[in-house]
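PROTEIN DESIGN WORKSHEET
SECTION A - STRUCTURE
LENGTH: 472
TOKENS:
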């Protein structure tokens, strides 16, 4: 499916260039965006587009090729900007390209610092045993399958805004696997539910998904505005869950008596993570400073605490020889998923390069001017079930169509929850397919895609009605 989508995306862009000559100027001509050249019909533009599609194919084949996804997109980003540089040689407009590149670098830098701190905290919580303790606590409750189905779904919905949909799905996926070991039908349904809930929960928080973070950092929406789509996000989760719960077994699994304790300092790390989020929000809302600066300040909380924690442990527990009792902030930072952060760099610069060439302006005209923002945002959400929502959202932000706050909330909602339509549509789904092999598969999710689609369109309708005043 992803392979087909990537090929179609490239072919559609090429078709648009030829089908609408009035919208695309000939190579070497000037576009309307600050005197930039329009290269959409030039050999440089076609070559850049081919590079992007080929790199995305390699990302799709990541598991088969055992090649980290960051490698092809990093190369693609470099090649696309090389082609842009060659196209601008002798044009006298190289400074314009240089300015766009620096602006894109600044955007990535802010995103990188924010994610670096967030991932560091999540890794620290994992290292302190917070997630394992949560899993074992849920397993020991002795609830029926249906109650566990709803409990894991609601926990995913409310946990995802604080962590992210990937971490949330992995933690709760482990719970589902533990309690449903003897009931494959429950595992499949509960995994679908967790994916939908985690994606829906991440949509109404600036911290819940990379796409919402990008919208917030671009100043398209204020921090508190995201919560306007809480009810639509809840509808997106509850409707398919209510349908699927009818197929969940009514029996109760055997309770497992376990006791897992978090490592010392875990509760303090949870508090510091919350304080870091408050700091980032305060920097943006009250000081009008980048939230990434607030996050880096929050990182200092963890670094300082780890120092004093180690001093206290060594003075009061010198006889304890367990090395795992210590908390080393810099050791935790080493575990940051660099492949993911570098993948974001490659995607942002590759899509940004396509914007410089003129393809994003062309797409904006077709979708937002031709179909209207509501239809365009709905379609982009559906596309995110096949193509990663990060390049799609970055493309929308780069196109920067003139939209009301209601429409920016709509694209935030659809890009966040649209990936739930297919198991391969989000990081949460892909991760769970790896954890729950044979039990949760592409086709088992596809069997219930119609129910997820009902939730998708219902959430859009609820948003259009509930937040009608924001579309003015």
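SECTION B - SEQUENCE
RESIDUE ASSIGNMENT:
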């Amino acid at each position: 499916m992803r392979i087909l989508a990537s090929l179609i995306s490239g072919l559609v862009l090429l078709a648009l260039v030829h089908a609408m000559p009035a919208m695309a100027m000939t190579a070497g001509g000037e576009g309307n965006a600050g005197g930039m050249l329009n290269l959409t019909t030039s050999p440089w533009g076609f070559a850049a587009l081919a590079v992007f599609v080929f790199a995305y194919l390699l990302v799709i084949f990541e598991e088969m090729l055992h090649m980290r996804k960051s490698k092809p997109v990093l190369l693609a980003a470099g090649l696309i900007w090389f082609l842009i540089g060659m196209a601008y040689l002798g044009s006298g407009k190289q400074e314009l390209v240089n300015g766009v590149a620096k602006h894109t670098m600044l955007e990535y830098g802010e995103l990188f610092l924010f994610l670096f701190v967030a991932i560091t905290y999540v890794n620290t919580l994992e290292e302190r045993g917070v997630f394992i303790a949560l899993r074992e606590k849920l397993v020991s409750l002795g609830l029926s399958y249906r109650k566990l189905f709803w409990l894991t779904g609601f926990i995913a919905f409310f946990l995802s805004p604080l962590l992210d949909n990937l971490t949330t799905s992995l933690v709760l996926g482990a719970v589902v696997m533990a309690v449903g070991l003897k009931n494959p039908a429950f595992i499949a349904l509960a995994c679908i539910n967790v994916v939908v809930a985690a994606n829906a929960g991440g949509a109404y928080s600036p911290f819940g998904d990379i796409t919402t973070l990008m919208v917030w950092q671009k100043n398209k929406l204020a921090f508190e505005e995201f919560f306007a789509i809480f009810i639509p996000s809840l509808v997106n989760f509850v409707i398919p869950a209510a349908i699927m719960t009818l197929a969940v077994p009514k029996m109760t699994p055997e309770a497992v008596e376990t006791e897992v304790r978090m490592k010392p300092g875990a509760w303090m790390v949870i508090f510091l993570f919350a304080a870091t989020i408050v700091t980032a929000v305060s920097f943006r809302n009250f000081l009008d400073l980048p939230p990434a600066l607030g996050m880096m300040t929050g990182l200092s909380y963890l670094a300082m605490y780890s120092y004093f924690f180690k001093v206290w442990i060594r003075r009061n527990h010198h006889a304890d020889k367990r090395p795992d009792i210590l908390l080393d902030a810099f050791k935790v930072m080493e575990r940051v998923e660099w492949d993911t952060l570098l993948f974001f760099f490659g995607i942002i610069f590759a899509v940004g390069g396509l914007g410089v060439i003129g393809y994003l302006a062309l797409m904006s005209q077709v979708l937002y001017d031709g179909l209207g923002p509501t239809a365009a945002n709905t379609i982009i959400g559906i596309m995110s079930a096949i193509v990663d929502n990060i390049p799609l959202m970055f493309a929308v932000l780069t196109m920067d169509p003139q939209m009301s706050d209601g429409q920016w909330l709509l694209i935030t909602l659809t890009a966040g929850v649209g990936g739930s339509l297919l198991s391969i549509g989000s990081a949460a789904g892909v991760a769970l397919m790896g954890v729950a092999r044979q039990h949760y598969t592409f086709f088992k999710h596809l069997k219930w895609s119609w129910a997820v689609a009902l939730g998708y369109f219902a959430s859009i309708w609820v948003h259009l009605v509930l937040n009608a005043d924001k579309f003015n």
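SECTION C - NOTES
The longest helix spans residues 94-127.
Residues 342 and 443 are 31 Å apart (CA to CA).
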